[in-house]
Write a structure and sequence with these properties.
2 domains; 6 strands; 6-stranded parallel beta sheet; Arc Repressor Mutant, subunit A; alpha/beta
Amino acid sequence: MAIRVLLVDDQPLLRTGFRMILEAEQDLAVVGEAGDGLQALDQVRALQPDVVLMDIRMPRMDGVEATRQITGPERNGPAKVLVLTTFDLDEYVVEALRAGASGFLLKDAPANELVQAIRVVAAGEAMLAPSITRRLLDKYATHLPSGDEPVPDTLHTLTEREVEVLKLVARGLSNAEIAADLFVSETTVKTHVGHVLTKLGLRDRVQAAVYAYESGLVRPGAQ
């Protein structure tokens, strides 16, 4: 079955470009388009897409609120949201991730990255590109904990290895990269990531990365 994609952007030319790229792939199908958040909600209910490619800044309803309603507790369908952002990163990206987005991608990303990101998100994983994460953290570094604050009680529920895995997730590493770094199998990493998400009450890797920085476990600029 092809992955059903809904394109949401207030610029028709961009939607046309995205459609051309995606429809060239046999496993992807663009099922609809929307020019703002309100239209996106209607299209999600009517078309039941697997992935919503969501712009942030749009009229009537922005991508943050649309994402919140699409992925929230009252969600109607399986749709996952992949946020599109400009090169300098919109100030709303963090809010979009908190609202339930499964990842974010630059609008000028190569076509193969866009296609792969959609496949990753559709498979239930999070798209957390290290290069974008670094720019995001640089921009918001002054608003993140310095690392001197008390560690949240929830972190104490993690084992030492799970804490290691969480730190690497926060750096944007994939399961395969974490496995190589820790000299364990990729299956073991997936198990650890699952335990981290369950213990901390998080939905996916993106929320885990945000949690790691907001809790002070990982500091901006640290390796």
